[in-house]
Amino acid sequence: MNFSELFKLSGLMGRFSPDGKCLASCVQHRLVVRDASSLQLRQLYTCLDQIQYIEWSSDSLFILCAMYKRGIVQVWSLEQPDWHCKIDEGSAGLVASCWSPDGRHILNTTEFHLRITVWSLCTKSVSYIKYPKACQQGVAFTKDGRYMALAERRDCKDFISIFVCSNWQLLRHFDTETQDLFGIEWAPNGCVLAAWDTCLEYKVLLYSLDGRLLSSYRAYEWPLGVKSIAWSPSSQFLAIGSFDEKVRILNHVTWKKITEFDHPASIASKKTIVYKEVEKSPTVETERLTFPPTRALASSLFSTQSKYDISEVPVSLQYVKPVADRANPKVGVGMLAFSADNCFLATKNDNIPNAVWIWDIRKLKLSVVLEQLCTIQCFQWDPCQPRLAVCTGSSRVYLWSPAGCVAVQVPGEGDFQIMSLSWHSSGDSLVLLSKDNFCVCYLEREEV
């Protein structure tokens, strides 16, 4: 593994372009675009205010920078650095901004979710979509970019509208059997739309492209319900993470539950491998000690190294009891992700914040548990092979594959706390993000 030097960063905003050629990052009001392989500076753009969100267009030719406080979006072109575009929503304000799949329209959501404004970069025309619902995941595009689903709220009822992205014509409009629609997400094949209700009502609804209700799933009635949802890349499975600390897997034929995965604090099965992260201080021979110590020796004396041990089962994991009288209790399965080959599912149960659970989907059983020293901040699968990258707010990055598990210290002075990470589309590098810095981790071909 090779690591780049540290570069300045604001707001955890570092993104590889979809074609993998560039890496965009933000420092306050500046947008910095680098070559993804050499990290040489390609473009530097200055925005009108501090950038709060960035997004690449699907063809990697444009970058959108949103400044929500000012109600402004600025768009920059990589091919024509002198060309620029400014969209000012004025008194309507701005709470969200995103690209359409064609990379030539921008969808801006105004304050109080009064409307979504669709701006065309080609014709400079403007379209308006009324009644967008203020929910966590209210806009969803199909993977092929042909259709957009929008969650709506009108007359105290929930609706979903499906639009054709080529001309923004309304294709279907139907009401949903939800109390308070919380989110929508298309299956990767674009044939089925999943919609789920507020956490107070356990309900997952599955709709076809023409608005027919294919199935409705409810696991139980009264306790808190759905917390997270993830489609498998093949669209064959829908994983539902719940507040009862379980993941339920639905199949794409009958939309019935085929299994459920529990997250107990004690692991007894001998077929499950538990990797436990342990820290050890390096030993230094007394003959090497000099005074004052060299810089390299001083840093090695006071730094701890991390490695994985395989624990003997049964293993008790660190369980945190949620505080019942506070909002948003740390309870239930809050993170879910399928591997690119559909073979594995990674989950995190918020009651056991230091563990990542890796399930074998082919055998429908728990395969591996990674027990970390710190709380899991983020994990993401390699887009090309079953390999999981994990970060915990420390200066280490952790990688798991069926071959084994490794903890790697990011070299350098100072405290580099990795809060988020993202894979390059080729799977041979990672961008590691902290609050103030980022670096790129290059994996050698043998590792890949």
Compute the gyration radius: what is it?
Answer: 24 Å
Structural class of the secondary elements? mainly beta
Main sheet specs: 6 strands, mixed
Give the oligomer, counting copies of the same chain as homo and different chains as hetero.
Answer: single chain
Overall pLDDT score: 93
Number of helices: 1
- Provide the low-confidence segments as ranges: 296-301
**How much of the residues is beta strand, in percent?**
over 45%
**Helical residues, percent:** under 10%
Adjacency order of strands in the biggest sheet: 29-28-34-33-32-31
Number of strands: 41
Pfam families: WD40 (PF00400)
Protein name: WRP73 protein
Fold and architecture overview:
The structure is a single chain. By secondary structure, the protein is mainly β. Helices cover 2% and strands 48% of the residues. It has one helix and 41 strands. The strands form ten sheets. A six-stranded mixed beta sheet has the order 29-28-34-33-32-31, with no helix packed on it. Strands 1, 2, 39, 40 and 41 form a five-stranded antiparallel beta sheet that branches. A hairpin with a 5-residue loop joins β15 and β16. The radius of gyration is 24 Å and the shape is globular. The N and C termini lie close together (10 Å). InterPro entries: Centrosome-WD_assoc, WD40/YVTN_repeat-like_dom_sf, WD40_repeat_dom_sf, WD40_rpt. Pfam families: WD40 (PF00400). This is WRP73 protein. It comes from Pardalotus punctatus (spotted pardalote).
